[in-house]
Amino acid sequence: MKNNDFHILIPARKGSKGFPLKNRKLFKYTVDTIPEEFKHLVYVSTDDEVISQYSVDSGVNVIDRPPHLGQDETSMKDVLLHFIEEKNIKSNIILLYLTYPQRTWDDIQTIYDIFLNCGQDSLACSEKVSEHPYLCFYKKDNNRGKLLIDHKLYRRQDYPECFKLSMFVACYTPDAVDKLHCLMFKEDTHFHQLSSHKVDVDYIDQFLAVSDK
Questions:
Q1: Which long-range contacts (CB under 8 A, 24 or more apart) does 141-146 make?
Q2: Between β-strands 144-147 and 137-140, what pairing exists: parallel, antiparallel or unpaired?
Q3: 7 CB contacts (<8 Å, ≥6 apart)?
Q4: pLDDT in tens, 121-160
Q5: Domain-wise residue ranges, the chain
Q6: How far is CA 155 from CA 17, 147, 159, in A?
Q7: What is the distance between the alpha carbons of residues 132 and 116, in angstroms, rounded to a whole number?
């Protein structure tokens, strides 16, 4: 990886309902994977004074996230746009959520190289789904349900192939960000299929399961 064609953004807000202060516990798993030679290219967007200090101690840069970008409903797109504007970013952006503690630097390098060669201005990851959405229902009152996707196919062989979004590693050009859906993809986004499931930590039991390995 050339050290002049990308920046890394790590979003790390303070709030988390399912696993309180989870980003403080997850911080080192991501930052410690980044080689020293690249840490000057890393920015941590946070509203947490503890994570700010962790960042300084680790030799990476801090972006003070304003209160309106630290809410439960804040989109990652808005956080990324704030980063681009604040730091006048012109290079590619590698977005690393802290919630993937199993991720390695080799993973990041491999996926970034795929982004450079895919011919698109945005990349996210994908995983195989364990249950096809054609078998899923909206839950209604009185133990009733409504198909999530309206269809009349009953043979699994006829179901269209699908995948699940994963933000294990995501890459963008600055110009692509304003066009993204709030789930951080657009119509021509390249989806890199991961070879295995990657735990996306949202609850403490998930963290404990992967942090012991």
A1: none
A2: antiparallel
A3: 41, 42, 43, 87, 89, 91, 92, 93, 94
A4: 999 999 999 899 999 999 999 999 999 999 999 999 999 9
A5: 6-128+164-211, 129-162
A6: 40, 16, 7
A7: 31
Phi-psi region of 119 (alpha: psi -120 to 50; beta: other; left: phi over 0): left
Helices (H), the chain: 22-31, 49-58, 76-87, 105-118, 174-177, 204-211
Instruction: Read off the tokens for 35.
Output: 């080689």
**Which CATH topology does 6-128+164-211 take?**
Spore Coat Polysaccharide Biosynthesis Protein SpsA; Chain A (3.90.550)
Q: What is the pLDDT of residues 64-110, one digit of tens each?
A: 988 788 777 779 999 999 999 999 999 999 999 999 999 999 999 99
Distance of CA 43 to the CA centre of its chain: 15
Q: Which amino acid is at 10?
A: I
Q: How many whole angstroms from its chain centre is CA 83?
A: 15
